Amino acid sequence: MSRVLIIGGGLAGLAAAVRLTELDYDVTLLETRKKLGGRATSFVDPRSGEVLDNCQHVLMGCCTYLIDFYDRIGVLDTIEWHTELYWTRGQGLIDRLKPGWLPAPLHYSGSFGRFKSYTQKEKRHLARAMWRMIRLGYAGRLAWRERTFLEFLRECGQPDELIRSYWQVVIVSACNLPVERVSAEAALQVFQEGFLASKWSSAMGLASVPLWSLYDPAHEAIERAGGKVRLGVSVKSINFDGSRATGVVTDEGLIESPTIISAVPFDRLDKLVGASMRKADARLQHLESFDVSPILGVHLTFDQPVMDLPHLVLIDRAVHWMFNKGTDQDGHQHIHAVISAADDWMPLPEEEIARRVLEDVHHVIPPSRGLEPVRVRAVKEKRATFAAVPGLDRIRPAAAPGGPGGSNGLATGGIPNFYLAGDWCDTGWPATMEGAVRSGYAAAESISGRSCRVSEVPPGVLAAALGLRSGLAKF
Ligand SMILES: Cc1cc2nc3c(=O)[nH]c(=O)nc-3n(C[C@H](O)[C@H](O)[C@H](O)COP(=O)(O)OP(=O)(O)OC[C@H]3O[C@@H](n4cnc5c(N)ncnc54)[C@H](O)[C@@H]3O)c2cc1C
């Protein structure tokens, strides 16, 4: 059995480990923390003893690799699917977005047509921009990879007010960057593949269990297949003999391996590789060019139920989403508020965060008015995701070494036994769990030479005929 060493037990490392052990590789996965799941996991709040997710993690129907991964490790039935999304400007006024009987890309036209949050004129503007996105097709969006989504919206004649109250609302949550910073290509992907191409793509999946419990089955699956998962082992550096990566130095000593996958984020990898290794592999020469974008998650507990809908998308408020996390046996309700691209919030103390978030809670959930939460826990993730700015795709690295390079043309260089995984790799996806799993499968495929492909959600017949024909997915 060939040995493979994987650094990092987030979704990318786990996905690679699960696929490679299935293919009879002798896998050892090293994770510096005492738990798996990386950024998509849970923790015990020392103040209350509660298990909290670091932040609500959402998947969509188009996340076919993540769904495949959950299926392989036997946790897919813990994902609850929501096909109806609830939008609000507050004061108890709720708009429901749900697919109707018309085929994609028209499936939302009925329910969106009934939205009270936007005027008829605004809806006509939105329809024009959506039409442009459809006609552009997947290939057409490549022409937008060096420009921002705001530039695209301006070209489509979208009024400022609508940019703020609609486009910003969707994109800041989906891409974790505002429209004026995010690459148009990344934003166009969200609409084309997520909302327009098929009815199922935009279904929203939420784990009904704490995130960390999704990974115990992955741990067991890897070990059952003969692999090893070592928690609490931190890699300090990667050894390089001038032509090959020979092993890793950990806080427990040297571990040698004929094949190594790095499944850590770019900034961590930057600390693990020396100058000679960097020089030998073009994929390692842009690590410092990635920027990050923060997310703030705020857990609020009320001593009585205040919210009955499962979630809310907030229009024109500081908070972007609120999730109803359920009511415990004492009647206490847990609500989770999420603020994406939360740069301005990072320096704020928790009391001020709670005050601002509560303002929005009271505004959009009338039964909460006059009530103070009994517990508040703000979780700041300063380095939540990479910033998908224009031009970034040029430097996202391929999983495999050698060869002509990824689809972005970045030459991969020549450390033949060194592979990369992580949401920041060249998967064609933004910083998501789906992107992480795709990258892990890509590394497993490159090492094994065996296909690890999963089918994409096919576009609807009408959507395909109009232009949303073939996916650009790089993996
Ligand atoms: C607040 C927040 C909200 C998010 N919301 C969503 C969402 O709604 N939907 C979605 O799809 N995505 C979301 N994401 C993004 C998603 O969490 C990430 O894209 C995904 O989890 C990245 O997985 P990864 O394996 O690439 O990296 P990571 O999860 O960062 O995993 C890397 C692992 O490597 C380990 N490691 C690092 N250095 C070393 C070392 N030296 N030695 C050993 N181990 C090491 C780390 O501890 C970590 O476990 C969110 C992220 C955050 C932070």
Protein model, in words:
This protein has 475 residues and is α/β, with parallel strands linked by helices. The protein folds into three domains: 3-42 and 209-290 and 389-448, FAD/NAD(P)-binding domain, CATH 3.50.50.60; 84-202, no CATH class; 292-386, Alpha-Beta Complex (Polyamine Oxidase, Chain A, domain 2), CATH 3.90.660. The chain contains 13 helices and 20 strands. The protein has a seven-stranded mixed β-sheet with strand order 8-7-16-17-18-15-19. It has a five-stranded parallel β-sheet with strand order 10-2-1-14-20, with helices on one face. The chain has a three-stranded antiparallel β-sheet with strand order 5-9-6, with no helix packed on it. Helix 1 (11-22) links the parallel strand 1 and strand 2 (26-31). It is globular, with a radius of gyration of 22 Å. Residues 404-411 have low confidence and may be disordered. The structure holds flavin-adenine dinucleotide (FAD).
Biggest sheet features: 7 strands, mixed
CATH class term of the largest domain:
Alpha Beta
N/C terminus separation: 26 Å
Strand content: 15-25%
Described by its quaternary structure, the protein is single chain
Number of helices: 13
Give the overall silhouette.
globular
**Poorly predicted residue ranges:** 404-411
When the domains are counted, the total is 3
Topology:
Layout: E1 3-7, H1 11-22, E2 26-31, E3 42-44, E4 51-53, E5 58-60, H2 64-73, E6 79-82, E7 85-90, E8 93-97, H3 109-113, H4 120-141, H5 149-155, H6 160-175, H7 184-196, E9 204-207, H8 216-224, E10 228-231, E11 235-240, E12 245-250, E13 253-256, E14 260-262, H9 266-272, H10 275-280, E15 292-302, E16 311-314, E17 321-327, E18 333-340, H11 350-364, E19 375-386, E20 418-420, H12 433-448, H13 461-466
The structure holds flavin-adenine dinucleotide.
